[in-house]
Amino acid sequence: MVDFQVAASGRAGDGSYTAARFFAEVMKDLGxxxxxxxxxxxxxxxxxxxxxxxxxxxxRVYGPNDLWDMLWALDQSAILDDSPDKQGRIPxxxxxxxxxxLLYDSSAKLQLVNSGHEVKxxxxxEQLKERGIRSFPIPMGEMASGQLQSYRVRNTVALGVMAQMxxxxxDAFFNRFGQSFKDEILELNKxxxxxGRNYASEQGWSLxxxxxxxxxxxxxxxxxxxxxxxxxxxxxxxxxxxxxRFYAGYPITPASExxxxxxxxxxxxxGAILQADDEMSASLHLLGASYAxxxxxxxxxxxxxxxxxxxxxxxxxxxxxxxxxxxxxxxxGTGLPTxxxxxxxxxxxxxxxxxxxxxxxxxxxxxxAYYMTPTLFNLSDRYQCLGVFLYDQFLAQxxxxxxQLDPSRVVIDRGKLxxxxxxxxxxxxxxxxxxxxxxxxxxxxxxxxxxxxxxxxANTNEHDESGYTTEESVLRYDMMLxxxxxxxxxxxxxxxxxxxQFFGDADGEVGFLCFGSAYxxxxxAMDRLRxxxxxxxxxxxxxxxxLHRDAPLIREFIxxxxxxxxxxxxxxxxxxxxxxxxxxxxxxxxxxxxLRWDGRLITPAYIVDRVLSGGELIGGEx
Length: 622
Description:
The longest helix has 20 residues, at 183-202. The protein is globular and about 90 Å long. It is α/β, with parallel strands linked by helices and 622 residues long. An eight-stranded mixed sheet has the order 6-5-4-1-3-2-14-7.
């Protein structure tokens, strides 16, 4: 695999993300596989430093590498911690590889949010020299404001410089500009791009050693069958393909793009969308819409999911299917709203009061999220229960190159519904419809309000088959068996739950267990360990609950390895704890964890380092 990783480092509101995305989209159009992510974003509105990562590859990539090959320094925060509080922020320069490339705005005076944060390259000149880093000063702010009278297009000047240095075609950039801008703004960006390209040419700047690398990206086949999509967007599109026709939500990072995408597209499908007062209200709206017959969904993060616990408990007893997309971030409390975390596994599996049946699935990239979303809707309808999609900030707010997502592959299964004709036959036979009828498999036929021949009671008190409240021992006993035991038994034999996926050496001595976006870094860590003579294997879990169906396979996997590590972004080792509880019991010498809980992304080198040191049982203690 040939790849190249770029960091675009600037300040909130200075357009650095737009420039990074333009560059990534151009490379996608030229045939590369890509991922673009939020490496360092602050949640407060203070124009704090930002860093966006772009990984360009000849093969599909799922996450970041360890070091940057090139750094765009749009102000001083890229090379030094210039924040007034000096709390220990690490700028991206230390992660720029030795021999890498630094492009920086050398303007004596920056404007707007970058004002006062001008790059003082002399502060790091000795470091650059020692590490063999090549630097390229570009007065992009002065060029944009002086020659084009628009400081806002200075990042487009940088794109022109990049195109010249990497020998990329003008048309690829102009085509992308044309998709985003019109009229005077389009022409202004073309001029800024050309200004940058000409400047680099006049300086004699070229990176011939990278021309072959970028040519390999371009020769990687046609990009026409691929698309570039945000994880949250893929989830929204998957939900629409699955027949979701009601969405209620409340904006919360990192899930808000699902709400935005559903608001953009839901009206085209005749559905309804509601921005609720809060997350509890949103989940109650879902219960009502699902009761009425609509496939219903929301997306939230840990704080919002916490507020939903009472309505979630209601779904466990009144058997109303709803789907919740849970995008994890660092907690507890408000925690780290814009940063990575996998701290809500226990809440997703065990949250709410009382006991019942639920489903928790976990995708690892945008394409899997798209196709797994309809699976979750189908299973939620089939088992008439809560369905949780457990993912994380990286997957939610990163963009991925995928093959064209195909809605024709989606199959919709609404589960055990009863038709109006069947209801009328029951009535004509002297019977009546029972929403919670006892059945061999525990699943009662669903009718919706308004269907002829049915009175549909939904009750969050314990109830009898018709839905009327009861507290009698016999009914309580049977209803719990219906809602819990029978469903778990049925699920254990259901082939539609996404099975674990195996990667690596069948007889690998070191094993890894993970879910979500840890998958990509683990694969690359395995390659590095193999290169040093350690055989490895990975079992990626996709159904996190119910876990008993996959327990024999997980147990066999653990038994067959010398040492097994769960890789997860929390301090308590929640995945390891769940596996110990449901699969194998405590095995402290064999089953360990690679944990990260500082809100930053797990990388291949981070995993390798922790594996070689023996892993952890709880964060900070061996």
